[in-house]
Amino acid sequence: MERPAYVAVDWGTSSFRLWLMGAEGGVLGERRSDEGMTTAARTGFAEVLQAHLTALAAPEGLPVIVCGMAGARQGWFEAGYIDTPAPLKTILTAAVAVPGQPRDVRILPGLAQRLADAPDVMRGEETQLLGALEGQASGEHVVCMPGTHSKWVHVADGVVTGFSTFMTGELFDVISKHSILAHAVAGAADMPADDNAFAAAIQAAYRQPALATNLIFGARAGQLLHGLTAAGAQARISGTLIGAEIAGGLAEAGSGATITLVASGRLRALYERAFDRLALTYRTIDADAAVRRGLSAAARAIWPDNERRSA
Amino acid sequence: MERPAYVAVDWGTSSFRLWLMGAEGGVLGERRSDEGMTTAARTGFAEVLQAHLTALAAPEGLPVIVCGMAGARQGWFEAGYIDTPAPLKTILTAAVAVPGQPRDVRILPGLAQRLADAPDVMRGEETQLLGALEGQASGEHVVCMPGTHSKWVHVADGVVTGFSTFMTGELFDVISKHSILAHAVAGAADMPADDNAFAAAIQAAYRQPALATNLIFGARAGQLLHGLTAAGAQARISGTLIGAEIAGGLAEAGSGATITLVASGRLRALYERAFDRLALTYRTIDADAAVRRGLSAAARAIWPDNERRSA
Fold first, then answer.
1. Which helix (H) or strand (E) holds A68?
2. What pLDDT digit, counting tens, does each position of A180-189 carry?
3. Taking Cα atoms as reference points, which of A224, A234, A177, A211 lies closest to residue B69?
4. Which residues of B touch A278 (CB under 8 A)?
5. Mean pLDDT across the stretch A6-18?
6. Hey, what domains does chain A have and what are their CATH numbers?
7. Using the beta-carbon criterion (under 8 Å), do A217 and B167 form an inter-chain contact?
8. Nearest CA of chain A to the CA of B228: how many Å?
9. What number is the ipTM of this complex?
10. By CA distance, what is A149's nearest residue in B?
């Protein structure tokens, strides 16, 4: 049995994921919950963490490495930002220690792009990126990390040169719940099931992103005029937002770039379908594995003794 | 004193406006309230109308001409659609009578664009359009009617050849209230007060509409990184949505077209500022006056006796 060496935590706005990692890099245990920053800010970050560690019978004193919104100002303990252009490996050693904890808990910083006309921030994706590009110190990469706030990142020879956040997931959510289109999508399942409507919207929005909110309104007009189903309306909204995001994400690199897609599950399926439909070149890296690799790289950098003991 | 000839009503989703019109075209009385379709569907359309007529001491039996969402399926009485391409004047004689009323109440139809890839609908704006272009039977017009659901309409020689709805106003509303940006705009006044932020967002989104949701996220990043104010964040969101709408609205006609802006009040000021900033050519027609003129044209067509009596 592999000895537990450290705990890796991806602590987002609305989700919490924890892995008990072995000295040889194996995953000894895993916990997932919806106790993200928003919930933990009320119930207590230390308490949420301890409950999951107890559930896994994690040894006392085992160090914990954390990335994500737990390091925001309104999170557990502020971990600051590293400014772009930023060599990815600078993240590894810039973690801050959370004071007053019974064990060594470190939170990794986010990235900040301090441009007057294009300010942007990320927290958590920098660690995913670190893991996704591990072992690829050179070359140019256009990385797409879809989500509530999708990130498109440009990396050149291990340096993050710039990035852009698109509010795709959150807009899909607020439009589906709070706009007039809530009626049009009522009753649709979670996954856009109407392939044709999704593909048509992807192509229309990618070609003419200026028409995005018009295409989205078509979900309602299509329902009124030709009986568009709830699944069709949902696919149209999702496809439009994703198509416009891809057009924006590739605005600089162009449609000839090879995209590194870092995604899992439903989002992976959606974005792969979109890239296929647009005949774009991409390779996919699993987002869960990427963030775990990034956290592990940081753990090795911060606690090298842990590694040596295991060797 | 001018004799009351008919009542004109613009009955939208969230607003109700009524004018008591004289036989010589004068406005003898006006009522405004928030008893739009949504409210009236609960409290009763006939009751809302009668209360306002009573408040103005409108004579019994005075006919009423209505445009807007009162004619939707979920409104008072369904008034159907006229399909594009549609000669504007066909609206005049296509009103339906609401059955069982103590007076003659007619509701004007909407317009429907039954294209498989670009379905669209309007209700109320067709009447505004009729009034805005009154006396201009010939020529090509690109008409912008900003609002909750902005409409951009192409009219050639009196025929509506096509139109596009942009969800600008509603998206501004749901983003400001229900997304993470609610924090960024909290406390801002109603009118975007930050001219520079508004102008910068208008230009950025008009130039690169694919970046719209990225530019909007900049309201949050700007607040985190360089203390963007609530007014600045609000102006950035508003400017981005309007800039992208204008790019979409002009996609077909091009930036050389002369835009006919049909707007009043706050929206008029915002769109004029945007057009000025983008150095676009436009002329403005007051939206309130336009819808009243459109309703009056319909009243004259439906009740010619009323006119003749007044002559």
1. strand A64-68
2. 999 999 989 8
3. A224
4. none
5. 96
6. 4-133+291-310 (3.30.420.300), 167-279 (3.30.420.310)
7. yes
8. 10
9. 0.93
10. B217
